[in-house]
Batch of 4 targets.
Target 1
Amino acid sequence: MRDFALLTDYYQLTMMNGYLKHGMHDNIVVFDYFFRKNPCGSSYTIIAGIEQVIDYIENLRFADDDINYLRSLGFDEEFLEALKDFKFTGTIYAVPEGSIMFPNEPVIRVKARCFEAQLIETAILNMVNFQSLIATKASRICAAAEGDNVFEFGLRRAQGPDAGIYGARAAVIGGCSSTSNVLTGKMFDIPVVGTQSHSWVQSFDTELEAFRAYAEIYPDNCLLLVDTYDTLGSGVPNAIKVFNELREKGYEPKGIRIDSGDIAYFSKEARRMLDEAGFENTTIVASSDLDEETIHSLKIQKAAINGWGVGTNLITSKGCPALGGVYKLVAVEKDGKLIPKIKISENPEKITNPGYKKVFRIYDLEHNKAQADLIMLDDETIDTSQPLTIFHPIYTWKKKTFHEYRIREMLIPMYIDGKLVYPRKTVQEIKQYANEELETLWPEYKRFDRPQLFKVDLSEKLWNLRNDMLNSYKQNGSPY
């Protein structure tokens, strides 16, 4: 991991310096990372980027040239000396990477010295917001593909190298089977795929010659791009000629790729031609500015596609450029006791949930499906031998009682007193976990259009605390 100590907003440093000057830098505070809205029209968000947060914290040191640069910005020696000795010593709880989460519930909970908790805000937002966005977009695209392989092809259109690398990682967590990004493949042990581009075909005197040359080099993995000149007039017929030659040599061809034109029509005609020639098991891969809506439409049209190369619209999250995750102060410690804090806004959706909190997910026992999430204060417990009633945090008359259920606490330890305790996973393990998480959602929450919203409620104790603080502000001009 590169030196990311300065991967922060300038105002984080000015606030840290201010806390130091006022003797507040060692105060213990609690911040929640959460998001207010699911991206991409989804009813859920797949959390990704947790491993990169760990890499960041594990390597969080200010080098001499960092200190010299900050000195040039006008920071004084007292502050710079404090940075020289910087080491994260706090406690972080987070959901396991690949978890399915919902708006307004804590995803990461940081309890640390104010000096430390403030610094790591920007990096956490940068890493988790982006990767969670791409993982969720990929999940929608893979859902539209209905079990077909989806290949991540976005590097050349990504907004910079890091977006290409970590976007491909997140896409695989979200469901993609592989990536064209070789560096991502190396870094995270992800399968890499690719065949040839139009320039390969154009480099030879004829299309047939180009296909034969490629098949000679890669007889075990021959998938040919057939739309350089005339997809049905020459591309598919020439591919069939080469496939016959491969079969005579004892090899089975992989298939064809179509990158332009009327993909629905071309794929169905190509399938017919390949089947008539005896190549019923070959794959037809489509590319060309695909997204979940286009794939969904092609599925409705019965396009004969069983592999999808998705690039630009995945890696840039077309239609949803950012996940609006935030990092908000929710408590401060005074005399050994955590005092809840709340942010109040004229925009009701920006009012925060105060206090040191945790999240329980409620499952039914019969189907093992997720029923609701309940945000609670950390000192609260649930007795699963007793019925549990939850209520909507705004429309409080809307209630649901669970009788036969189990619960799961979503936040697990990541750091305890500065020591990493989180069980690190490979990308493939995270992908498998994300898939298992999706299996616990009822179909209505995974619906492609207008999905049902998942219930996220507050415990009665938390709901009362929040409303008491709001009423206190209204009556006294202060929530405390």
Target 2
Amino acid sequence: MNTLEEGTVAEVDFEKIRRAAKSPQGLIPVVLQHADTLDVLFVGYANELALRETLTSGRAVLWSASRDELWRKGATSGDELEMVDVRVNCEQNALLYLVRPDPGGVCHTTDAEGATRTTCFYRRMTGPSSLEFISGFAPVA
């Protein structure tokens, strides 16, 4: 079991933005939201190439700050995200991708039945160092 992804101890990574900022790529955050349910699916990053690929392909394309490479969501998992709309915030330093999951999974983690979770936000904070799973997103047994 990966305790970071399946545990109940909060280990919030406050250094992620600092590491992403050291990337040779110019990056901005991207919030990915389900176009129909309005659930927030996950947060990623885009550079100019990822945004161009997203707009051209009609599929969510991001920049992997940890791997420092273009990330075509679903290329390995099969869980693609169909683009519905791309929005930019008032200061033009963040994007919102409104998407439809195809076939339905989003996160790289799985639930107790082994199905890809439909969002990466499957736990809630119950204190400064503790988490609990949200109903319907049980950990893998």
Target 3
Amino acid sequence: MNIIHSGAKYSAIVGIGENLKKLMQETGEEYLFLNRGVNSVVPIDLTEVVKNIDFNSPAIQVYPPNNGAPNLKEAINEVYFHGKADTSLISVSGGSMSALDQIFTMLDVDRIMLPSFYWGAYANVCKIRGRAFDVYHTLEELEEGMADLKNSAVVICDPNNPVGDKLSDEDVLQVIRTLSEHGVTVIFDSPYRRVFYDDDDEMYIRLMNLKDVLIVESFSKCVGLSGQRVGFVWSNDPDFIQEFNLRILYVHNGVNGFAQQLVYQLLASPEGKKAVKAFKEKTREDIRKNIEYLRGRGFLAEEFYRNSEPKGIFAIANKSYDELMEKKIGSVPLDFFTKDEKEKAKKYARICVSVPHEKLKEYFDRF
């Protein structure tokens, strides 16, 4: 049959994972999967949490409201906005990828501006939707080139995927404020932030009064529920939210009711808060130990963190994909994540540092 090809590619990360599984089957040896983008230090313990969910309730068994379950939106407001947001401006999404897909198709802009090292899905969604994209290299470059950003949308991911560098909040906020004042739309997509920050974090509150700012959030990273595919989008533009909700209705017919009620319990119930706290504390502890170990052994590619802090679930190793594979460590070549810095990136690899510390140390001690 005749079809329209998008030109997008399947995730290289998936392909690398499949190859690692094949090698394990063929050799009978274990490989360390640092190519994946999920928190793998510990799973979140849902044993006590699910006891609070009534699986026979309409919230589970009937079509969910297309803009999100009211109790979940109230919980999101309390946890992320300290109760100061208008819940009608919060829309529950099917994870951040589908949210970004809708956002990229909705925005009436000429191009999407991505960080020079970017999550591959950004570029592939742009290709599928026929949206032009370009890259920026620093926040300073955005400020200096403000005139060239007219009718563009800028994606800010902090801590960044794939680099895992955390910039100063004040620097990030200042640039977003300047972009907002110049009428440039900002998509603040930082799903790794809340792994490292707790409910007293004020970043989203400080973004609330800025125009043309979209917040995209996912519960995949901060509570370890990538399998549930649920997140949220906030905008202070009612027209945007109305159109976003309309698209959720006709594309997804709402977001999985069970996933919404599970996340609600994690955000609002004593059992859920306890489970999230334990998950985040252990995850952060081992990520910190892993980064300290990599830095101490000289495995961390320091040039990527000269003006930032390595504080994410990813880091850049100054070993190539092939060098890591020799020690049975899975990774992703860094040149997969860039449009214009491929030569520089070829000697590096992105690794996920959200794995048990002793396991990471065991494999890197082979060098």
Target 4
Amino acid sequence: MAQRLRKLGGRLHLLQGSPNTVIAVDVGRVVVVDPGIGDGRDGAVVEAVRGLVGGPVGEAYVVLTHGHTDHLAAAPGVVEALGARVYAPRLCLGLVESTVLRRLAVYGGTVSEALAAMPMVSLRVDEAYIGGAALPLGARALALPGHTPGSSAVVFEEDKVVAAGDAVLGERVLARFGVPFAADLRGWAESLERLRELAEAGYTLVPGHGPVTRGKRAVSMIEANIAAAERVKSYVLEKLRERGALTLDRLAYMATVELGSAEPSPRQVLLNRTALASVLAWLEEEGKAEPVITEEGPVWRPRQS
């Protein structure tokens, strides 16, 4: 365990993983940001907390950046072991507390546990927070909608560290999957601009999936994410103009094959379908694409001038 625990400075430590977990300890009080997922992950988090506290754990809190399974699956075990209270973004409340709502938001419909490839874990939330809200141990919430409607960062001002969740992704993750997952890819790109301000101010950036960075390296990572969103948008418009009209399902398959390096799978195509639906809405709002009905269902085409 000690080999996986890294000091971020001040009161903060990183328990590495995918996603990363930030642990803040101050006089027996503990905040765990995004406990994560995986066999034994809850035990690893609890062990790390107890080792850092070095005595009885007083007040304990689990703070979620958003309501996806990979960030919260280990939380029930952590909550039970530490008696922790759970904080989650208000607009992710349903995703955290209901596996049905979570699958609807992620896949556009209810899918099986096998297809989702993640455990159907739910969690009761004690405190729903909004952007700008004060969080335990002097942290604050920064609203970064896009990945989910309530996606947020947990900003530790005293330590100049921002736990960004999936509002930003490491470059290897971007390259592997090609299409960054977001319920609203336009909102995700806009939120990255707000995150860039913190990076430029010298905050250490802890992404959910990717390396911890700061300074120019953190700014570079954020810019790579913004470029990825613009690349997907340009790709969609180019394909619509090239093919004349495409269904969302066909577009999702093409993007999965052509933009990423990962082997296409039903799960990945469904994830990309959700993100690409938001891109089509983005293009429609800009007057560049429009839906029409055909015998095969709705298709999208370039907007006729």
